[in-house]
Batch of 3 targets.
Target 1
Amino acid sequence: MVKSQKIKQVASDAIAFLEVLDAVGVVLDADNQVIDQSSLAVQMGLVEYGKLTSADLINLVDEARTNRQSIKKELNFSKNLRSVKQVISARATLLSEELVIVLVEDVTEAKRLEDTRKDFVENISHELKTPISAISLLTEALQVAVDDPEQLTKFAKSLQRESKRLGSLVSKIIELSRIQAGDLKGEIEVCDLSQLVIEAVDLSQFLADSRGVKINFDASSDISVMGDASLLTMAIKNLIENAVLYSESSSQVGIGLITDGEFAEIQVIDNGIGISVDQQERIFERFYRVDPSRSRDTGGTGLGLSIVKHAANNHGGEVTVFSRVGVGSTFTLRLPIQKEQSDERPE
């Protein structure tokens, strides 16, 4: 009886310490019955009917008992079949001959960020190789063609094109990295969306004129949001330029701005090549291109829509697409409007 009380006291003291640290922990006896658990362990659903719910955790405890040492592993965990899977870092450590404490940390987000970072680095390495290799070959060709003015001009133009592509790629990589880190470049202020759209149209006008595409803008006035004006302008510009690049000559790109009382919607509509349903799920991924051959011709980096997505997320909004192959696409950037304005314009 005394031994049992002592075991419970050790378990209670250990859990009390974990509560102070806001840590997730469970203490088990020699039969792997749960004696005590922290409140966060309850929230995670680690225990059910006095037992650990995860077979992997039970195996971890058995391994710690067998080896008489602390064992740490990264495991997949879900509360039940309908729950979202989590990645956890779990450590099983002996507290005494009978007791084992299991410490758990949810590392799902950290794992996702690490995978994203690795994927990002791999993509960057791959994307940078193409223009860098092209520039290297063109500089060699220039040296060989020094006595041939026609070839010299041809290679020089190609070198300039690849240099611009490399500069644009590096610039957008830096911009995307900053946005993903949640670093809003300018001050958070009240932004007149119609003015931001007008500025984005002006910035896209040269590209549209060079491709023979007309931009039409019809927007409501007095629609404002709180945000980073430069970042929002860049996001709108990316949508417009994307529509222009995937439109044929002599076509039009339409831009509309409306509000439903809670959100403002900026719609960019084109009559371009359209996007298949399976591609619509991926177009906001970094470096993904609907038409790689067209991107090579236009100098597209495959980062524009990814920047739009993260800019929307950073402002509490979202970006969506509706498209039909051969008909065209409509991209909608939704942003929460300024609160005072929302109160004045009930839905």
Target 2
Amino acid sequence: MAGVKSNIYILYLFLVLFITSCDPIQLYEQTTTYPTHDWSSKQVNNYQFNITDTSSLYKIYFVIRHHNAYHYKNIWLQVNTQSPSDTVVTQTLNLQLADDQKGWLGVGMDDIFDQRIPINATPTKLKPGLYHFSVHHTMREDPLLGILATGLRVEKVHL
């Protein structure tokens, strides 16, 4: 019986190592939660992270958790990025949260949906130093109802 337990343990350890080796390396993730499930356009969320490895490529994601009662298939954002010793770059993004064929995109459980949406289309090399991001929505509905949390995620891409 002890041999079977050790074989199961080895198999379990192998599976854990295999699964974790396939994941990208998360460098940074921070979310802002909205206890009343609404996000005011006046609430600007600020995030910052430090880059030391300039040889790697990075993907940057907008992270959102919303309720099934969210009224739209998309969300409009203004994202301001300041890289080390550069001026602020402003992007206006229209990010899809649903489509007519599949419904809500991302992962859902009951009536809550989570989604990571790339902000940069392709993996990017980043300069060394401190990056500052600020994010706010520019939707006509204000406050934006059905939003539970939003955030920013940065991952190192495996080649």
Target 3
Amino acid sequence: MPHQVKSTLPDPNDPWVVPDERHELYLDFTLTDQDGQRLKLSDFTGKPMAISFIFTRCPLPKMCPLITATMANLQRLTQKAKIGNDVQLLLISYDPGFDTPTRLKKYGTDHGILWTNAKMLQPDETDTTELLHELDIGVIPQANGTIGHFIELVLVDHKGRAARNSRDTIWNNHVVLSQLKNLISEMISENQPANQ
């Protein structure tokens, strides 16, 4: 039986966490992006992140295909709002044994992802369980090879701290855009010299 620890993520019923109450996440997990580049999730700190999870074999159109298309729409909203360069949008596979970088890139492209401020990521198989646990993501492997999961979106601030966890239903991109702007404002404010 795995050891249960208190979640470091916000309560989905009270989703926004103010900076002083945020907990730093462990993000030193190795992943491979859609172009085959090896990196750490911690490499993305320094900018706010929106992170969600999919697998390309998902048979349900209102789950992973919808998640990916919604992230693509969020990407376009960030570009329209001129904050695209200030945020990172990440889709991480639940199924790293099958979801190779090539498969992830095709899947993302087919669902409208542009390879600017968005990445599709294949975690190391040995790290996947720990990564999902750290981000408080629930999965249930099924006997038929599919994966039972929620729709999740985790917002992480520029310091690698969890600010929001949206769960169960597809997120509202206009709300997320507003919250990403809040995270950018926090980042700018913290980076300004004290005498300004």
